[in-house]
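Sample intake sheet
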Amino acid sequence: MTALQHEHPRRVPFTVVDEVTRHCLHPRVPETVHIEVHLPGRPDPARLRAAFNEALRRHPRILMREAPGPWYRRRYEWELTHHPDTEVVTFPPPTPHALTEARTRALSHAPPLTLSPPVRLEVIDHVLLLTINHTALDGPACLRVLATAAEIYGGQDNSPTTAPTRAPAPTTPQGRPDPTPRPGFAPVARVAQGRPTSTTANGMLTADLPLPTRPRDAPYTVNDQLMVATARMIATWNREHGTPPRPMRITMPVDDRSRGLDMPIGNGTRLVEVPYAPEELTHPDIPALLRRTALRTRTLKALPRPQLGHGAALLTAPVLPVSLRAAFTRALRRTAAPWTSTTLLSNIGRVPYPLDFGEGAGRATAVWFSAPARMPRGLTVTTASTAGRLHLALRWSGVLLGAADGERLRDLFAEYLDATSGENT
């Protein structure tokens, strides 16, 4: 490397998702993603640190920090670095509350954007807890880096498995696709307020549930079952809290990236919104609701669309200085709050990598993710499946819900997910 290359690292413009997230950062509500991997054994600290640092080098796009610039610059840029600016892998003292404290840090302290890479990995006994600054990276990208670290550490093949195929598209009895409800300009349902903790920080509850079953030829997927369970959970919660029924929209990330070593690292998902009419969520015909949901998710996934829609692409066009675009974006976000989707369901699906760290540490037995839960949504639902189990994380804003509310929502989700299973439909 020449001295000139060292002094002037390569720069990469922020994507649309990066910029919009950067504009809307709140100092007391960190925008973090948490990934929690449970292993049967305890990894060796020195070997794990070396393996993770080597994985960073093999995925150099993760080695980045926000480049400084004047107020009148027209875009934010990432500065790619050749090495981490700080120690990424740490080993907190193994106290009885170490994991709880690490989870709290994951929800309340984002890795700074000014240091490369904007992630940290805490190792508590046999648990790996990765915290990601969501302005820079998403969960699937960092899971890819973890899989590479597992392969380096244990020498085991951690290649991704093939994604399952989907059954043919369902249709109405007349052979036409079911019409999707159009909420129009009516405000969408919000998650009713429970017993908040009077703090802007996020709270979280994780659960281990059985995977829902479905008939072999079912036209809907597990993701559709999760979508129905999420919608019915919120509809019942709101009804229990005296909230009038309203149209509901659930944001669903769609990730079209490959899962191999060539996977693009960054924020690579696009967001679509799955709508529901109020009467759909109280009707007892669950199979019909599953079929309609399958039609909607399939159609939405197939539509070509920018990551956050055409409006966001216009908002981030480098015409005005970023400082002016930031002020306009924040004002627009406040104005559009009544029409923001009800919640976000992020289903990672079956974790595509074995996450096998080899002899001693072993293969992952559970993997949890959680996505940020800022207002006005205030609640996110994130799922992944490993070893035949569903790992659910409910994450909420402390100004909206409390721990007891999370437990009630978990129970409702489990009940409605069970109702979508094959023997019940």
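Comment: Confidence is low (pLDDT under 50) at residues 1-5, 172-177. Residues 222-240 form the longest helix (19 residues).
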